[in-house]
Amino acid sequence: MGRKHDFEELLARAKTQGYQRGAHTAEDEVRDRHKHVQKVQKDQNAALDRYVLWYLDGVQDDYARRGLPAPTEAMAREHCLGKGVDAPDLVAVKDFIRFHTATSCGRIP
């Protein structure tokens, strides 16, 4: 592992990089500023749609092996994105990021 930075060194580095405590407080306190920007929503929805497809691909073989009908996209969406669903573990997140990158035509939207 890397060496630990002492407190004074970290503060000096932050100051050198232009960090000023509280410099953006007034700006950060404004609620709903840029809320629900349409492009961000579109990009998030596209990533979530891709996540559901990635999940479906992963469970279809398991369902077939157990003799169960393949889940629909709506079922997968509810299982992955429904209220109260736990976040995926790190291994799943990393695999999805690799899938997303591989299917993104050289850019992540």
Question: How would you describe what is shown here?
Answer:
The chain is mainly alpha-helical. It is built from five helices and no strands. The protein is elongated and about 60 Å long. It starts with 6 loop residues before the first helix and ends in a 7-residue tail after the last helix.
Put simply, the count of helices is 5
Distance between the termini: 33 Å
Strand proportion, as a percent range, falls in under 5%
Pattern of helices and strands? HHHHH
pLDDT below 50 for ≥5 consecutive residues: which ranges? none
Mean pLDDT: 85
Radius of gyration: 21 Å
Most strands sheet:
none
Strand segment tally: 0
Structural class: mainly alpha
Residues in helices, as a percent range = 55-70%
| Outline type | elongated
Summarize the structure.
The chain has helices spanning 7-16, 25-29, 38-65, 73-81, 90-102. It is mostly helical and 109 residues long.
Quick tags:
elongated; 109 residues; mainly alpha
Topology:
Layout: H1 7-16, H2 25-29, H3 38-65, H4 73-81, H5 90-102
Helix pairs in contact: 3-4
